[in-house]
Amino acid sequence: MTRLADVARAAGVSMSTASRALSRPDLVASETRSRVLEAVQRLGFHVNPAARALTSGKTGLVAMCVPTLSNPFFAPIIAGAQQAAEAADRHLTVVVTEGSARREAEVLTRLSGQVDGFIIVAPRGGDADLLEFGATTPAVIAERVVPGLTSVIIDTPAGLRDLTGMLKADGHRRVAYLSGPEGSWMDRLRCDALRESLGPNGELIVIGPLPPTFRAGAEAVQGILDRRATAVVAYNSLLALGAVYQLHNVGVRVPEQISVASADDLAALGLGAPEITTLRFDPAGLGAAAMEALMRLIDGRPPAVPHTRIPAALQLGSTTGRPATDV
Amino acid sequence: MTRLADVARAAGVSMSTASRALSRPDLVASETRSRVLEAVQRLGFHVNPAARALTSGKTGLVAMCVPTLSNPFFAPIIAGAQQAAEAADRHLTVVVTEGSARREAEVLTRLSGQVDGFIIVAPRGGDADLLEFGATTPAVIAERVVPGLTSVIIDTPAGLRDLTGMLKADGHRRVAYLSGPEGSWMDRLRCDALRESLGPNGELIVIGPLPPTFRAGAEAVQGILDRRATAVVAYNSLLALGAVYQLHNVGVRVPEQISVASADDLAALGLGAPEITTLRFDPAGLGAAAMEALMRLIDGRPPAVPHTRIPAALQLGSTTGRPATDV
DNA sequence: CAGGGCTTTGCAAGCGCTTGCAGTACCCTA
DNA sequence: TAGGGTACTGCAAGCGCTTGCAAAGCCCTG
Questions:
Q1: In a domain, A55, yes or no
Q2: CB distance A1–B249 less than 8 Å?
Q3: Is residue B101 part of a domain?
Q4: Which of A182, B26, B247, B270 could hold B252 in an S-S bridge, CB 3.0 to 4.6 Å?
Q5: Above 80 in pLDDT, residue A246?
Q6: Which whole number is the average pLDDT over A97-111?
Q7: Strand duo B174-178 + B231-234: pairing
Q8: Pick from B83, B218, B272: which is nearest to A215 by CB?
Q9: Closest to A86 measured CA to CA, from B151, B79, B110
Q10: Is the CB of B1 under 7 A from strand C?
């Protein structure tokens, strides 16, 4: 293992200078700095994070708290964050809180002091704890806005307005919303966006709260038919897929008789058959953006914007269209 | 933050003794030891992992390499490993290798020295690199057996033999296997187990290799029908679900005309409608077992057994049954 | 040209813990 | 009683890096 001392010797500088060339480059003359960096490259040097942590308090470890890994929605977000961390020579430790607020609090206190900061994906629960925590530790909230904290969200509401616009143009007026899990922060936002953009002439039929699963989508179909909706918007593609599946089963044609669309896109899963109309976004970008914001926070630089929005674009599939006049 | 020095002072011993009471308890008189432990409790002391790492080389960080997070198969495995790590006061960092052997090698070399050990889930690629790597670093291989390395696998082959037994008893003779991704180590094992247990009177029709996705399952249906199989065993439930879905679409009744079963169980995803016959196992147990084996390795204790097997039990669903005589 | 300020670099003191070595006390055997 | 163990404890030297402080060199201003 090459040490910083080796690098310093190779570059003909003292250890202090070599150290500063890496962590406070602005304090070193550019010519010296490049000599050091060249030596770093040549010797394949990587700082020993333990040694750095001991003096600076920065461990190079970042924790990401997610409620579960079973929902594939989180997977690419984690992957994106992890890559961004790796690019910055940091590690990401993923902590599953299993949706329990108590466990989340436990984890946060246990880890703070061992990690430099947190990316918290907490779709449920109240703002207060998060706010209090974020006041003392660098933290970025994902897929949720907590006033006063840095956050990164997907702009699904904007995408939903586009979707509603299209449905309205196609002549849909009764739209069912298969809502997400109980207490989901995003769910409320989506529901509001739908209702608002549907306008006074439309009617939003909310079905749920529902677990975001294939089965729940299938089971919701009866309700959809009972309420005579001509279009269904689901909280995520698992629900949408379940609905399409069950509609097939009971002999309802999609999209001729009912249109189906989804707010979250789980296409990466290979869950895309048939092509469901969805909102497409870059989940890895979400993770990366969160990590970048967090690293600014950790380094004491102000984040570019407090609330980053990742665009969600309407992606037309074969499950939406003009409703048949006889329905 | 309380330091070890505080504990030592409170217990009336030197720092060395306090340190040993924690990491080498056998070297300290039991009366002294309990005084130290009492002080630790009272002051709420936690060792500073960075400081410990600096001298002892043990960072308390363990890396888990998975090919991807998009496949929900890995999610509960990771969660299980993470919980086991947490219980042992260690952190788990998840690294996604995106299936590339080069990237995997990169990650392994970059991380070794920063982590105490590895859990490697490498369903594809050759043994040689893994073997070489495992010779120099504590490592446990999951879902694969590499002779000479410690590994933990799910005993799907045994489960598949049970499944085949049932299919044969039901009168199935032509069984299609929707195989997994190209180069998958497990896939070969499963295919062999099926063929062998199907016996000389049966015929195994291998379709694939296939990506383990819903869509691929749907698209494989035509081939299944062409080859006149009466039963389908899929590499995982995503494939099975896609097949069931498409069989419905083309008007083939399940299980009256064709039985469908799956080797991997992704029920946690909510992908269980309708109830597909699968092999059920405890994926979190896999992760936890791997982590426990790894910790033994790290501590220099020999692992209990070199190759741990997690049982996979046949779970009957509504998608298998006696084939109709007219098919 | 003296003095002040700025930039760049080096010195050296740790950060909190582990561990090789040495010292002390005590017990056992011959 | 001397010699040799054994069991326990303390001393002190780091582990690899960061950072406050100070020195050195330079440019500018008055």
A1: no
A2: no
A3: yes
A4: B247
A5: yes
A6: 75
A7: parallel
A8: B272
A9: B110
A10: yes
Residues A312-326 pLDDT 10s: 988 888 889 887 764
Q: Provide the number of structural domains found in chain B.
A: 3
CB A234 within 8 A of CB A178: yes
> What value does the mean pLDDT of chain B take?
86
Residue A75 sits at the chain B interface (C-beta within 8 Å): yes
- Say which nucleotide is closest to residue B5, CA to C1' distance: C16
- In whole angstroms, C3 C1' to B229 CA is 97
Question: Which strand ranges, in their side-by-side order, compose the sheet holding A203-207?
Answer: A203-207, A174-178, A231-234, A259-262, A277-280, A313-315
Residue whose token pair is 């000599």: A35
Name B129's Cβ contacts closer than 8 Å, sequence gap at least 6.
Answer: B101, B104, B105
What is the band of A183 on the pLDDT scale with cuts at 50, 70, 90?
confident
CA of B57: nucleotide with nearest C1'? D15
Residue A37 belongs to a domain with what CATH number?
Answer: 1.10.260.40
Q: Is A306 on the interface with B (CB under 8 A)?
A: no
Q: What's the rounded Cα separation, in Å, for the pair A326 and A252?
A: 13
Q: Does B47 touch chain A (CB under 8 A)?
A: no
Strand C at less than 7 A from CB of A59: no
- Please tell me whether the overall predicted TM-score, pTM, comes out greater than 0.85 for this model: no
Mean pLDDT of A83-98: 85
Q: In the structure, what pLDDT confidence band is assigned to residue A327 with cuts at 50, 70 and 90?
A: very low
State whether the beta carbon of B61 lies below 7 angstroms from any atom of strand D.
Answer: no
The chain-wide mean pLDDT, for chain A, equals: 86
Which of A71, A77, A96 should one mutate to test binding to chain B, selecting the residue with the greatest count of B CBs within 10 A?
A96
What range does the domain containing A288 cover?
61-154+283-311
